[in-house]
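From the pipeline queue, job 12 of 40. The input is one protein chain; the requested action is below.

Action: predict structure.
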Amino acid sequence: MYLRMVFPGRWLIDISGQMRTDIRKRIFNIHNENDFLETALELFKYQYDNNIVYQAFIKALGKTPDLINTLENIPFLPVEFFRNHNVVTGDFPPEKIFQSSGTTGVIPGKHYVYDLSLYEESFIKTFNLFYGDPKGYLIIALLPSYIERDGSSLVYMADKLIKLSLNPNSGFYKANVAIQ
């Protein structure tokens, strides 16, 4: 529960494009609900101050950071913003750009990732928290439509977890056949 709001690669970058090490340490060392609340509120204020798209959205809602003091009050950007805006914190060349599937002819949303190591650390630690070490799992990914599409964050995560699995049958499958 405590890691649910940590969106890898999207939140923790300062204006120069460098992630604040103190915040990175904190998000991966949350031990209780109070730690989570404090970190989430700090990240909200950081995003407000450094992400121009998010700041404009908050202002359009008629809110200010000083009025936000609970998790329930933190506004989330609608998914459409990731389709129509360049949602980034700071000015940096992304290490990776993930795209949503763009189902039913909709413009795909984009997720600009500055630091893939943060992204990977986030989903691997979350997997470990809820399920345990991926080494002990058979991980089968049934993602036929995603595999053909470049830029899927889901395929990226599944691929990393499959590689961490020690089970030789872990892999991507399509129609009961392993994909090499």
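Job complete. The chain has two domains: 1-132, 133-180.
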